[in-house]
Amino acid sequence: QVQLVESGGGSVQAGGSLRLSCAASRSIFRFKAVGWYRQAPGKQRELVATITSGGSTNYADSVKDRFTISKNNAKNTLYLQMNSLKLEDTGVYYCNAESYSDSVGNYWGQGTQVTISS
User: Phi/psi of residue 79, each to 5°?
Assistant: First the structure.
């Protein structure tokens, strides 16, 4: 029911900042939660941050106090502001939308690469 397209990835030095965007083809407020996941080479995909339809946020301990998730319902866009970036933040970042319906499940974007250098 929805297509997700990430953008804003790139290469930055440690300590720098990036802002990721996820554009949805239709209303994101109808989902249980939307969020960001990432996958580093050789590692499993992990949760970075989520925000529910009611506005509650959840962050992985590794990014807490450095990353901020937000959304603009009018623009059907999800954001991830990443500050004080570290080498371990390197990976492909994916946008996700979780449906209230178990039969529908999750929607995923194609991913955007984030590379942090020393």
Answer: -130, 155
Q: pLDDT tens across 32-91, in order?
A: 999 999 999 899 999 999 999 999 999 999 999 999 999 998 999 999 999 999 999 999
Bridge-based pairing of strands 57-59 and 67-72 is: unpaired
Q: How many residues does the chain have?
A: 118
Question: In the prediction, which pLDDT does 26 show?
Answer: 86
User: CA 41, CA 39: separation in Å to the nearest integer?
Assistant: 7
| Predicted confidence band of residue 1 (pLDDT cuts 50, 70, 90) | confident
Beta bridge partners of 78: 22, 71
Helix (H), strand (E), coil (C) string for the chain: CCCEEEECCEEEECCCCEEEEEEECCCCCCCCEEEEEEECCCCCCEEEEEEECCCCEEECCCCCCCEEEEEEHHHCEEEEEECCCCHHHCEEEEEEEECCCCCCCEEECCCEEEEEEC
